[in-house]
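Run folding on both entries below.
>entry_1
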Amino acid sequence: MSASLIKQLQTGLSALGLAQSEAQQTRLLAYVALLQKWNAAYNLTAIRDPKEMLVKHVFDALSVQQHLPAGGHWIDIGSGGGIPGLVLAIADESRAWTLLDSNGKKTRFLTQASLELGLMARVTVVHARAEDHQGQYDGVIARAVTETADFIGFTHHLCAPEGSWWLMKGQYPQHELAVLPNHFQVTTTELHVPALAAERWLVRCQAQNQEA
């Protein structure tokens, strides 16, 4: 990796307030290299420039790190190139991850990347649709998915009773949140992604106990 990319990573981590070890920084840069390599054949992302990948994929994923609870078993729905799940698995060793995607090319990349990055002990890759997968997770997270209510609908069986849904959004999803049932407690947090002049939000939804 070039010195400029290393410097860009360190500057971004500092702006995010994240302390990452040398080994973690090496893994984050190795992830970008793998994404760039596999992208040539598998078209995982429209972004080709590694510096742009660092901003729009790595920093974008890392922007939620300080807002998520530590520990637990999490699932990244439609993980694609591993955003945010694979990146967050590098950044925080306290969580176990399931990376789910219905695209076989993407799950092949996720499996190989997890292997090469030494994450197999904490990362499981699943090739399936969310509706067909079974499991109970403390956190159900996704970036750039369908509307919030629809997402909760087709992943409802995956969220543990005390778990939460976490959705990474662009513009503030005012309409989506307005139509959610009242028994969902919603928290929104504005995110700041280094070197990205675009709006970003993190939406947390948790179902509250309803009286019978």
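>entry_2
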Amino acid sequence: MDILLTNDDGILAPGLRALSAALAPTHAVTLVAPDRERTAVSHAITLHQPLRAERVVENGGPPAFAVNGTPADCVKLALLDLLGRTPDLVISGLNRGANVGVNILYSGTVAAAREAALRGIPAIAASIALGAPYPPERAAAFIARLVSLLARRPLPPRTLLNVNFPAVPWEEIAGVRPSRQGLALFAEYVEKRFDPRQQPYYWQGADTQSFEDDPEVDGAALRRRFIVVTPISCDATDYRMLSELSSWDLGRAADV
């Protein structure tokens, strides 16, 4: 397969390099990733400054480019110019830190995969929970096996797989569990401080993410030591509500 690799941790991140090493022997791999960490930028794109892609030269390694933009920028630039072709698959990761629950909405890792899925290209986002005691090569080997499955069982249009690995010894992983996205929020706060001119500024913070106590929810399954696989659709329409709206008396624009 022709595979584009990207991430939000930067072109030199160990997780990205582990994926490259696992896939390059049997696939055509190209790396296009941010030139530095771009965590939690979600699906932001760069519009008000030029993008630059610098070739990263490595002896014997696959083609690699460092981009001064966001993860979504990297995928756009790769597909519109750098690759010169449409890849069979885009993989974003391996991210340092889980991306489950509402984190999926903030994640640059997931956004890069979503950008590919929006364009009709199968995509995987992959993350390892903080504190995992195994090297990223173990998770990369699992992703390589998942790639071989996708070659025989294609994803639905505009759908990506969000894969998360738990923070336990590899031998203690309980299995692999298909799960749905959780929606429980962080316990968030802002810390208010004052600069030397007594003008206020703020640091955002959050306690540990909480999850619904449901083994079918991604974060709860991850906490139960499972590798979690969640299918994510690019279509965010609430179809039940769409049907209900037809019964509302919405009136006409002229009535306002």
